[in-house]
Amino acid sequence: MSSHTEQDTGWQEKIFATLKEAGIQQVAYVPDAGHSHVIRRAQADADIRDVVLTTEEEGVALVSGAWLGGQRAVLLMQSSGVGNCVNMFSLLQSCRFPFLTLVTMRGEYAEFNPWQCPMGQAAQASMELMGITVLRASTPDEVPELVAAGIDAAFEGGQQVAVLLSQRLIGRKKWKPKK
User: Fold this and answer.
1) Residue-wise pLDDT tens digits, 30-52
2) What is the extent of the structural domain holding 53?
3) How many CA atoms lie within 13 A of 71 on its CB side?
4) Closest CA to 23 of 60, 62, 61, 70
5) Which CATH number goes with the domain that contains 73?
6) Number of domains the chain is built from
7) What is the pTM assigned to this prediction?
């Protein structure tokens, strides 16, 4: 069982506020501790539809469909889920759908789980190879501006954008064996 170290959720609340202010109406996600604050806030907001996914690539189709239906959506995922989406990213390029994803990173700073390292190290390059613009937040102060810039680039500029939230920002995970 893993647990995050104590962390300030102020930057996470700013993510939610930025999404809300930008008119995001759907939040798609595979449950993830790094996104838990935003997920809980979306679940509690009657104006936002939260959609639990069985796998991240479903989220690429969901946010594309939301756009076709006149709504703005965001995909929340962990870096390990990026590998699940690579084939679906071709939909974004072929159809030129606006796309926004917020990606919590693993396989970086103080990673204890070796299974997280390969995709954590390849996530940014994988997205860039598929034509997605990648912005990276490493400090709490960077988060609101980068999320807002990603929203504008996606929904005003018609781009495909990923905002990576560094593992150092999320907090160090530690393995705690069951007792």
Assistant:
1) 999 899 999 999 999 999 999 99
2) 2-175
3) 17
4) 70
5) 3.40.50.970
6) 1
7) 0.90
